[in-house]
Amino acid sequence: MTAPFVIAVDGPAASGKGTLSRRLATQYGLRHLDTGLSYRAVAHALIQAGLPLDDEAQAVEAARKVDFAGFDPMVLSTHAVGEAASQVSVHPAVRRVLVEKQRAFAMQPPGAVLDGRDIGTVVCPNADVKLYVTASPQVRAGRRHREILRLGGQAEYEAILADIERRDARDMDRADSPLRPADGAHLLDTSQMSIEAAFLAACAIVDGARDAKN
Ligand SMILES: Nc1ncnc2c1ncn2[C@@H]1O[C@H](COP(=O)(O)OP(=O)(O)OP(=O)(O)O)[C@@H](O)[C@H]1O
Ligand SMILES: Nc1ccn([C@@H]2O[C@H](COP(=O)(O)O)[C@@H](O)[C@H]2O)c(=O)n1
C-alpha cells in the first residue's frame, strides 16, 4: 500500500493558508483539515456552556468530543470564537487531545493537507511537504477587512489589525507548540502575491516532492 502523502501548511492568522490548502487538496486529490476549527470548536463549546476559557479540565472534555465531520464553519468562523480559540489553544492538555486526532486524520490514505500553526513542527513533522505561508500584518488585516465587508459584515481595519497582532503574539509566544516555520519548511510570503500566484508557487514545490517520492 502507498504511504499517505501529507502536506503541512502553517502560518499566522489570515495569511491565506486555508485558501491555499483547499486548492492544494483539490489539485492533488487529498483530504483537507483546517485544524483551527478544532480549537474553535473547543472554545465555542466552553462559551455555549458559560464556562471560562481557562478551565483546562472542561476544555479537555470538549476536545475529546471534537468531531471533524461535525464542524459548522458558519458558527465557528466568527471573530469572537477565533479570539477565544487562541486562548484555549495555550492549554497543553487540550493540544495533546486534538493533535492525536489530527495526526490520525493525516495518516488515512491517500493522505491530506492540514493547515494550522503546528502542523509541520508537531502534528506531522515527517510531512512530505511543509509550507509556511505568511504576509505582513497590514496586508493580512486588509484582506480580512475586505472579506468581512464582502460578506455583508461591518468592521474597522484598525481593530482587525490590532486583533491580528495580538493573536500573532499569543500564538508565537506560547510555551507549547509556538507558531514558527518547521525545519525544512518552504517560506511563502504572499504579501505581494495573488491567490493564483501563491497556488502556482506551492504546486511547484509539491510537484518536486512528489517526483522525489515516486
Ligand atoms: N494571496 C492572496 N492575495 C489576496 N487575498 C488573499 C490571498 N490569500 C488569501 N487571501 C484572502 O485573504 C483572506 C484570508 O484568507 P484565509 O481565510 O485563507 O486565511 P487563513 O490563514 O486560513 O485564516 P485563519 O487563520 O483565520 O483561518 C480571505 O479573504 C482570502 O480570500
Ligand atoms: N494547529 C493550530 C490551529 C489553530 N490554533 C489556534 O486556534 C486559533 C484559531 O485558528 P484559525 O486558524 O482558525 O484562525 C489560532 O489563533 C491558534 O491560537 C492552534 O493553536 N494550532
TrEMBL record:
Q: Name one GO biological process term.
A: pyrimidine nucleotide metabolic process
What Enzyme Commission number(s) does the record list for this chain? 2.7.4.25
Q: Give the transmembrane ranges.
A: none
Q: Could you tell me which InterPro entries the record lists for this protein? A: Cytidylate_kin, Cytidylate_kinase_dom, P-loop_NTPase
What's this protein's name?
Answer: Cytidylate kinase
Identify the keywords attached in UniProt to this record, alphabetized: ATP-binding, Cytoplasm, Kinase, Nucleotide-binding, Transferase
Where does this protein reside within or beyond the cell? Cytoplasm
Keyword Nucleotide-binding included in the entry's annotation? yes
Please write the reaction equations for the catalytic activity of this protein. CMP + ATP = CDP + ADP; dCMP + ATP = dCDP + ADP
The record's gene field reads: cmk
Domain Cytidylate kinase: residue ranges? 7-196
Q: Give an example GO cellular component term for this record.
A: cytoplasm
Q: Which GO terms describe its molecular function?
A: ATP binding; CMP kinase activity; dCMP kinase activity
The top of its lineage is: Bacteria, Pseudomonadati, Pseudomonadota, Alphaproteobacteria, Hyphomicrobiales
